[in-house]
Design brief:
The protein is an alpha+beta fold and about 325 residues long. The protein has two domains: about 130 residues, 2-Layer Sandwich (D-amino Acid Aminotransferase, Chain A, domain 1), CATH 3.30.470; about 160 residues, D-amino Acid Aminotransferase, Chain A, domain 2 (Alpha-Beta Barrel). It contains six helices and 18 strands. The strands form two sheets. Strands 1, 2, 3, 4, 5, 6, 7, 8 and 18 form a nine-stranded antiparallel beta sheet that branches. Strands 9-10-11-12-15-16 form a six-stranded mixed β-barrel. Helix 2 crosses helix 3. The longest helix has 16 residues. The chain is globular and about 55 Å long. The structure holds pyridoxal-5'-phosphate and 2-OXO-4-methylpentanoic acid (COI). Pyridoxal-5'-phosphate binds next to strand 12 and helix 5. The site of pyridoxal-5'-phosphate has 12 residues, from strand 12 and helix 5.
Length: about 325
């Protein structure tokens, strides 16, 4: 299968938010038009990977208004990532207000309702300043960029093919559970290889035993068992996906199916009826097959999205675009 994903590309918008940290404190933060930054060539972000980021979306509702999905959760996860990389945190309310400002300033770039396109929001932080030794920077930049985007994979209708990577994405007690740039740098080479071989993306196994499914390159792995349960791996080295958290809640409380967080062995896929990758960019993308050790395992739902993953997709996107009631105050209307 040819990798799609050309819908997830950068289009310059009118404004982004930037804030500088110096002498132990953050400045006020401003909206600006320039989408470039000038930093010292000795910035820790460039040499030692002192960088972390978030990803969330703004959705256009049918009534024309714009809403965010679970922005507070992104703010909290961002703090967690900053702490892990010894960077100063951004207060949750400052993060949320800055995201709102960026979206409202770029209101005309939020795609129209109806095509599933959204405004992707990318907050990130980098260590900057003149540094040489391996230690945390003294200066930081917090920047929020945004861009209208389409589908990351090919959309929900057609399940994609994935292959298991020979490489590890993260170490057992490393940074796999935090959203830091270094994890993604390490996943690029395996991802390119997977795409060259015609797969949409690769799946990483647990780094300790290489027997269990752990993570998709930029998404969590989910599946529906043949007896109708929602299953997703539990691991110390995968990202605590906000999409997955939401799907688990919807599976349990709306579809009334059991939710299992447990090991998914790569050699025991026969008990799974449907599989998928979930995340802000991936939304809920069905996986039709997984290739491992020269064998291509097809899930029963490999030609079309399976019925339960379809229901979950409809539920989550229904809430995200404001068509369905928001049962948990996940949504912030701007
Ligand atoms: N796992 C990885 C490695 C990711 O990059 C992402 C994307 O953010 C996810 C999972 C999904 O997380 P979320 O649903 O919070 O976007
Ligand atoms: C997201 O889903 O927000 C991501 O971070 C995916 C990105 C790495 C493409």
């Amino acid at each position: 299968m040819e990798m799609k994903g050309k819908g997830f590309t950068y289009t310059k918008t009118a404004y982004n938010y930037i804030s500088f940290y110096k002498d132990g404190k953050w400045d006020e933060g401003i909206l600006r038009e320039d989408d470039k930054i000038t930093i010292s060539s000795l910035s820790t972000a460039l040499h030692y990977g002192q960088e972390c980021f978030e990803g969330l979306k703004a959705y256009r509702r049918k009534d024309g208004r714009i809403q965010l999905f679970r922005v507070e959760d992104n703010a909290k996860r961002f703090q967690f990532s900053c702490e892990r990389l010894a960077m100063p945190v951004i207060p949750v309310d400052v993060f949320i207000e800055a995201v709102k400002k960026v979206v409202l300033a770029n209101e005309k770039f939020v795609p129209l309702y109806g095509k599933m396109d959204t405004l992707y929001i990318r907050p990130f932080m980098i260590g900057v300043g003149d540094n040489l030794g391996l230690r945390p920077a003294k200066e930081y930049i917090f920047n929020i960029m945004c861009s209208p985007v389409g589908a990351y994979f090919d959309g929900p209708a057609k399940p994609v093919d994935m292959v298991v990577s020979d490489y590890d994405r993260a170490a057992p007690n490393g940074t796999g559970h935090v959203k830091v740039g270094g994890n993604y740098a390490a996943s690029l080479y395996p991802q390119i290889r997977a795409r060259k071989e015609g797969f949409a993306d690769c799946i990483f196994l647990d780094p300790r035993s290489h027997t269990k499914i752990e993570e998709v390159g930029a998404a969590n792995f989910i599946a529906i068992t043949k007896d109708g349960k929602y299953i997703t791996p539990r691991s110390q080295s995968i990202l605590d996906s906000i999409t997955n958290r939401s799907l688990k809640w919807l599976a349990k409380h709306v579809l009334h199916i059991d939710v299992l967080e447990q090991d998914v062995y790569i050699n025991e896929l026969d008990h799974l009826a449907e599989a998928g990758a979930c995340g802000t960019a991936a939304v809920v993308t069905p996986i039709g097959s997984i290739t491992f050790g020269g064998h291509k395992h097809f899930f029963p739902a490999h030609e079309h999205i399976g019925p339960t993953i379809k229901k979950l997709y409809d539920l989550i996107t229904g809430i995200q675009f404001g068509d369905l009631e928001d049962p948990n105050h996940w949504v912030t209307i701007l």
